[in-house]
């Protein structure tokens, strides 16, 4: 097969666009989508200037998604005085898994010369995920604990670090799965939250009212397979092993269904996302207008915003016998 743009040998075919692309054109198309998403989300138009630059904190796990994100961001902004990048890796305390992916993170941040921080559950919560998975005091999947801790660590660290934005490597498949899971759960408030947390244009958001650092997912237009191919073609130091506690069975089921739909109807993931984003925006507006959107309390223990007296993270830290610093 030949590249539809230049006639060179194609390295990929995207059924949803019908395009065959050679290595050069494929790489450029991935980079273009990432940069366009950054522009269209208003991440550059809402403030950063050479005199008043912004710090963007990038969640770097060492997997292909966050490695590609970090690489493309650095190449995009290395000479841009408006943006300072800092990579943050969360160390969950999972033997044989996180140490290897941490190596990938170090290799990448060394090669790119960007600042790199590591936050360990051990130090933040007094527990490691291996022990939590083993004991499992609440009878939940390990990821249910881990996800709460990760979100907390990311936003708290972003806040402490004075980061203006928090960027994560979620790709199109991740986002379409989350969208379907939220739609199928029937929890419209969750959908509205998703808009406020990550989908809204930065221009439209009431950032001053938001206790969290605004989030962005610049890879969310790029399918998972293309992220993997991009990392492979550029020989980026991505770690491929799967976490031994990976247990999101429902997400796996949804992923299979979406793959089947995508095979039979190319473009399904894109249309799931465009419909979902519109719905999320409408839902967010509704909750904001009727005043039931904000009005959060502060956690008695840690001060994090919550609807209850004690936030979910503090509940879980208690349950697993951990300790806040
Ligand atoms: Fe944590 Fe689950 Fe991810 Fe493993 S797969 S790092 S337990 S969220
Ligand atoms: Zn708390």
Largest sheet: 5 strands, parallel
Strand order of the largest sheet: 5-4-3-6-7
Low-confidence parts: 199-210
CATH architecture: 3-Layer(aba) Sandwich
Helix content: 40-55%
Over all CA atoms, what is the radius of gyration?
A: 20 Å
SSE order, one letter for each helix or strand? EEHEHEHEHHHEHHEHHHEEH
User: Which distinct ligands sit in these coordinates?
Assistant: iron/sulfur cluster, zinc ion
Task: Give a description of the structure.
- The chain is built from 12 helices and 9 strands.
- It is α/β, with parallel strands linked by helices and 325 residues long.
- Strands 5-4-3-6-7 form a 5-stranded parallel beta sheet.
- Helix 7 crosses helix 11.
- The longest helix has 22 residues.
- The protein is globular, with a radius of gyration of 20 Å.
- About 4% of the residues have low confidence.
- Bound molecules: iron/sulfur cluster and zinc ion (ZN).
- Zinc ion binds next to helix 12.
């Amino acid at each position: 097969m030949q590249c539809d743009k230049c006639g060179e040998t194609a390295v990929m075919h995207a059924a949803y666009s019908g395009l065959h692309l050679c290595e050069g054109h494929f790489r450029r198309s991935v980079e273009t989508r990432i940069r366009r998403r950054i522009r269209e989300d208003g991440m550059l138009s809402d403030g950063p200037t050479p005199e008043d630059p912004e710090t963007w904190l990038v969640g770097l796990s060492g997997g292909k998604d966050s490695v590609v994100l970090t690489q493309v961001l650095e190449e995009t902004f290395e000479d841009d005085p408006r943006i300072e990048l800092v990579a943050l890796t969360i160390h969950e305390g999972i033997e044989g898994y996180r140490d290897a992916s941490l190596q990938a993170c170090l290799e990448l941040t060394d090669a790119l010369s960007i600042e790199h921080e590591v936050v360990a559950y051990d130090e933040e919560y007094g527990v490691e995920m291996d022990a939590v998975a083993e004991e499992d005091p609440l009878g939940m999947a390990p990821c249910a604990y881990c996800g709460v801790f990760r979100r907390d660590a990311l936003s708290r660290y972003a806040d402490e670090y004075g980061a203006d934005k928090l960027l994560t490597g979620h790709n199109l498949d991740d986002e379409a799965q989350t969208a379907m899971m939220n739609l199928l759960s029937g929890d419209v408030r969750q959908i509205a939250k998703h808009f406020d947390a990550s989908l809204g244009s930065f221009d439209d958001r009431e950032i001053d009212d938001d206790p969290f650092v605004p989030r962005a997912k610049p890879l969310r237009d790029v399918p998972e397979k293309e992220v993997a191919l991009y990392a492979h073609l550029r020989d980026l130091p991505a770690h491929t092993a799967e976490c031994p506690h990976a247990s999101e069975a429902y997400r796996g089921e949804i992923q299979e269904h979406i793959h089947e739909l995508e095979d039979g109807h190319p473009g399904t993931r894109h249309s799931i996302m465009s419909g979902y984003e519109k719905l999320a925006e409408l839902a967010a507006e509704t909750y904001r207008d009727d005043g039931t959107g904000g009005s959060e309390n502060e956690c008695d223990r840690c001060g994090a915003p919550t609807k209850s007296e004690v936030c979910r993270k503090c509940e879980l830290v208690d349950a697993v016998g951990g300790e806040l610093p």
